Amino acid sequence: FSRARVGSFFQEQPVLKNPFLEDALLRGYLKRHLPEEAILSDLNAFGERVAKDIDTWGRECELNPPRLVHFDPWGRRVDHIVTSEAWKRLKDLSAQEGLVAIGYDKSFGEWRRVYQMSKLYIFSPSSGLYTCPLAMTDGAAKVIQSVGVSPPVEEAYRRLTSRQPERFWTSGQWMTERQGGSDVGTGTETVAIPQADGSYRLHGFKWFTSATDADMTLTLARVQDRSGSTTPGSRGLSLFYAEVSRDEDGRLRGIEVQRLKDKLGTRQMPTAELLLDGLPAYRLSEEGRGVASIANMLTITRIHNSISAAAAMRRQVLQLARDYATRRTAFGKLLKDHPLHMQTLARMEVETRAAFLLVMDVCRLLGREESGLASEFDRHLLRLLTPVVKLFTGKQAVAVVSEGLESFGGQGYIEDTGMPGILRDAQVLSIWEGTTNVLSLDVLRCVARSSGMVLHAYFAHVKSLLAGASGVSSLDPAVKAVGGALSELEQFVQIAASRSPSYLELAARDLAYSLARIYAGALLIDHACWKDASPNDTYAALRWCEQELCLVASKQKRGCYDSSSASMDAALVYDNLIQK
Ligand code: MFK
């Protein structure tokens, strides 16, 4: 009787398989650029581990989110952030697998970052967001390296890049205050009071500190002079290093955890509001050079963000969606036999391939820079592409993950399938580490600061990638599309160079998107020209290049950035108010 009531059909669920073996583009890319057997077999073994065990730990982190215990049973303030066992296991695993250490291992030469980020790419969707502390840990190691691995941060550097779980440390990055998420220079109120021994005590309120269970942090504050005054704006900010430790009574030294944030997603990871009340700290930068000194961390965390975005698209939805399409029958046949369903997945695949190649190219450039092989040209490209790729892949991830959920029908909307959490987590990728607009403006700033040299490097590199495809007739339409879009972009830049800052500001987002789409087109073409490329690589390049690649040029022709646009945009937004 009960069987008749519930029915006898149960849908098979999608199955996660080894994400390394499942990813033709990743394996093709590595075979082309990094064909070292030991690395490939490490990634394969790690992929196996991810599918068998780690994915379950990541899910456990989502199901057992961190909680804050303010007081012990006897009323003493303890501020313990209690995390799940799985979260702690992921820390140990991160050390053992060298998820930060590989990026600092000189033996992997200029490909160290491609290797490290490939591993993180496999790990990220199963990591229970442990990739967030790893991003900041990596960023902190990079900052320390840039200011000099010497006391008081020598030991910290060793720990951040250690492969031994018992020595491994993670780092926070406490930048955001109530007034300053994006506008850090204006919004940072935290002050640093000099101590007789040369150290400082920090007093302030950090509004959004992710992975707050870290062992140390880098943060910004204003040094107070003898009269208690500070310098306003960015020029008053300095970079500080602080360890998170407890006193003999078990209380956090100089920190009170006000509360944990109640976030839309990324709930696996503790994010807190922190009152800094005399936190002992050391200044790492020259006074007033805080933003410039922490910029290295921003570069690294923005690249990690891009990796997470590409990985969410690739694995969290595409690998599962294509598996599901072999198990789910509707209207008399499997989903995989419905051409429209396959077209939808294929479009997601094209987006994902573009994202992957964009991110890997940034990793390639970073590896070249860190191994001392980068030319001036490479450095310009890295500076320009870091914000472009972060902002572009962040937006792609939200769109692709949302589409991906739909490919599971109503099940994609059901909480305990784990799918809704993927969408929630994707949403943050365009927000933290610089929103889309802030990064679009960063693109303008780096163009201006380099007197256009970053664009010069960009144009030259895209042209060289296209030149490599000349004579490959199957790619002709794609090469023509990218070449045409590049010329339009060059024309736009020439016109824009004589326009006002407000004109450029209105064009900033479209410019960044155009830079990303054209560059991705060139990378897809380049990959399809490789001797072992498959017809699928060519098809993906052709499909990508069918879209409008240089939207900034077409919008410019339509007058979208003219001086009247700003006031008309505002009138439209406040339409109701103006009518009243
Ligand atoms: C899985 C991944 C997980 C990731 C972890 C996420 C957890 C954390 C959550 C967070 O969201 S943490 C907070 C993230 N906050 C931001 O990303 C801040 C966003 N705002 C910006 O990026 C603004 O553009 C910025 C604060 C940098 C603007 O500040 P300023 O003081 O107006 O910068 P300005 O004057 O343009 O530059 C000051 C110096 O820094 C210059 O150096 P110089 O003085 O030597 O010329 C710049 O060249 C340098 N600089 C600024 N941005 C840079 C940079 N250098 C390199 N790269 C950059 N992006």
UniProtKB/TrEMBL annotation:
Positions of the Adaptive response protein AidB N-terminal domain: 17-146
The keyword Oxidoreductase is annotated on this UniProt entry: yes
Needed co-factor(s): FAD
Domain Acyl-CoA oxidase/dehydrogenase middle: 173-277
InterPro entries: ACDH-11_C, Acyl-CoA_dehydrogenase-like, Acyl-CoA_Oxase/DH_mid-dom, AcylCo_DH-like_C, AcylCo_DH/oxidase_C, AcylCoA_DH/oxidase_NM_dom_sf, AidB_N
Leader sequence segment: none
Superkingdom of origin organism: Eukaryota
Domain annotation Acyl-CoA dehydrogenase/oxidase C-terminal: ranges: 288-445
Domain Acyl-CoA dehydrogenase 11-like C-terminal: 453-574
Annotated Pfam families: ACDH-11_C (PF22217), Acyl-CoA_dh_1 (PF00441), Acyl-CoA_dh_M (PF02770), AidB_N (PF18158)
Molecular-function GO terms, alphabetical: acyl-CoA dehydrogenase activity
UniProt KW keywords: FAD, Flavoprotein, Oxidoreductase
Family recorded in the similarity comment: Belongs to the acyl-CoA dehydrogenase family.
PANTHER family associated with the record: ACD11 DEHYDROGENASE, ACYL-COA DEHYDROGENASE
The protein's name: Acyl-CoA dehydrogenase family, member 11
Organism: Poecilia formosa
Lineage: Eukaryota, Metazoa, Chordata, Craniata, Vertebrata
